Structure formats: structure tokens, C-alpha cells
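Section 4.2 – Deliverable D4.2 (structural model, holo form)

The reporting period included a commitment to supply a predicted holo structure for the target in complex with 4'-phosphopantetheine. Inputs used:
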Amino acid sequence: MKIGIYPGSFDPVTCGHLDIIERAAAQVDHLIVAVLHNYQKGNGLFSVDERKEMLGAVTSHLNNIEIDSFSGLLVDYAKYKNTNLIIRGLRNGADLAAEMQLAQMNKKLLPSVETIFLMTAPEHLFVSSSSVRELMLYKRLPQGIVPTYVEEQLKNKWNKG
Ligand code: PNS
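Output (C-alpha cells):
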């Protein structure tokens, strides 16, 4: 069985992430979407449990997805999950530089690991979780940036002040 891991912060999951998840899921038998539990970074906008819940909701139409979280090194988590396949999305040259560093360090740590990149769809090239978090400060969210369910959760959050 071909198992892939799509790791990330997903704070929150965007339409760009969802596109990568759908395309990655079509390439493997089982796709683990793994949310980094980064204790050093604090809680972020959404808690890890909230991020996982949103990921579950927006991927409910796919039948080969597991939503999980991990802490520590990604390669250790990959070993624990019995896979050596990591999938990441690439939007631009800045992503490429950062992703190459990550992929090469992961390969150094665990030579059997392979990182595969999927090109972000053109309509999502400018979409990022960090811009969503910034827009939240101004209570502005153009359509097509995050899935409708996530938009509702963001609006709940800003209505709570
Ligand atoms: O969505 P992001 O924030 O771009 O995802 C980054 C992520 C989670 C893939 C990356 O930070 C990661 O794998 N962190 C775990 C620690 C690790 O294994 N680092 C690589 C060696 S320095």
C-alpha cells in the first residue's frame, strides 16, 4: 500500500492546501494529512484540534485520508507511520528555496525518505495561511481563499471578538 504524508501547519487549511490534498490523494492509496504540533510557536490562530477538525470537515468527500498531528521531527513521524513519502506543495521560487532545504535535511536525517512536490494550481498561487491570519485582523476574507466551512469558523472567531 502506498502511503503518503502531507505535513503542514494548516492554520487554517486554505483552498490551496485542499487542492494539493485532493491531487495527492489521487496518487497514493492512503494520505496522512499531518498537522505540526509546534509547542514553541504557541497556539496560533486555531488550536491543533480545531485545525484537525476543519481538515476532517473539508476532506470528508475523500475516502483515503487520515487526519493526524505530530510533534518532533517529520522523518521520525514518517518512520512511525511506515512511510517514506512526503508530499509538499510549491507556489513559487521562495517556496522552492525553503522546501529544498527542508527536503534535503530530511533526506540527510533519513536517506530512504523521498519528498515529492506538487505545483500549486494557478488560482491559488497567492494564497497562504499567513495572509488569511492577517486578513482576520481586518475581518476581510475574499471568496475562494479558504473552503466555505473554514470561512464559517473564521467568522465565528471574529464574531467572538
Ligand atoms: O505549513 P508549513 O508551516 O510550511 O509546514 C512546515 C512543516 C510542518 C512541514 C515543517 O516545519 C516540519 O516538518 N516541521 C517538523 C520539524 C522537522 O522535521 N524539521 C525538519 C528538519 S530541520
